[in-house]
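note to self: dont lose this again. the chain is below, predicted strucutre after it. 344 aa total, dont forget to put it in the shared folder this time
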Amino acid sequence: MTIDGNGTRVASGRVFRAEGGLAAAEGLIRIGTRGSALAVAQTTTVAEKLALATGQDVGLVIVRTKGDVSRESLSQLGGTGVFVSALRDALLGGECDVAVHSLKDLPTGDAPGIALGAVPERADARDALCSSEGDLLRELPAGARVGTGSPRRAAQLLARRPDLEVLDIRGNVDTRLARLEQDLDAVVLAAAGLDRIGRGAAIAERFGLAEAPTAPGQGALAIEVREAEAAGGPLAGRLAAGLAAIEDAVCRATVLAERQLLASLEAGCAAPVGATAVVAEGLLSLSSTVYRLDGSASLTARGDIPWRLDDPDTADAPHELGRRVAGELLARGAAELAPLGGRV
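---
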């Protein structure tokens, strides 16, 4: 039994990590995740909420992805979508009932047979600088070596500090932080990821979103299910309460706007594009910046649109806003700065 926020005793299922595969069973929800410490940590949080909301046991099924085993750069592998495909295959193949992703890793195109079941409340969307001496970005010595696996972060770093030597790095959070004791002066990581695994103390500086807009969807999670379940399939009843408990409508609206912008630019999820959407006073607002890869130039566009929670008349507002801001960027020459496929 668990005590909920209202002081009521409620039945909560058990959350456990499966060793190997896990067969479907009554009273069990299987949740697919990558095996990294960060992926397991964020998936466990989702699993606990599902178990509490449904009373079902929730088992974590670890799925290895090409991005976890290859040492190639993300750009060589085809972007962060390499972390997603194996989980989606496991979901469609019946190896799990739900899959949890970092939302910024999701390709913007449709995935046949898969639906976005829920988008939880967003964590800190900012990027974070971790430095060997605790220095802020402006305090790093001239020519400091800074590691990142993101072309966007590299461009932003060089735009603010063109003297830096920015190196492409791979590996999990701990592997990247360990480089601070080896050959790097600093690394840039997602603040949300550091917070989720209890490594927030390693952060020397959290960059403001106005000066360093992050990847579309950064800080948010995506809970994917099979379309059959979303449309009332065998698991629909068991999952519905859990997905409703996890869903954050404001977060969904903001990330849909950011992702629509990326899709309209025809830019991959590793492109040098930053975007920030917020909801305030009945308006959904979106700002986006496209960077030249060397940080020597950038272009920013902004827009807003009426949006209200549970108002069906504004359901398409995030997509409309994303298309509108992307159109302005393209009209002003964004495709001349970065490798984008979109055209006006």
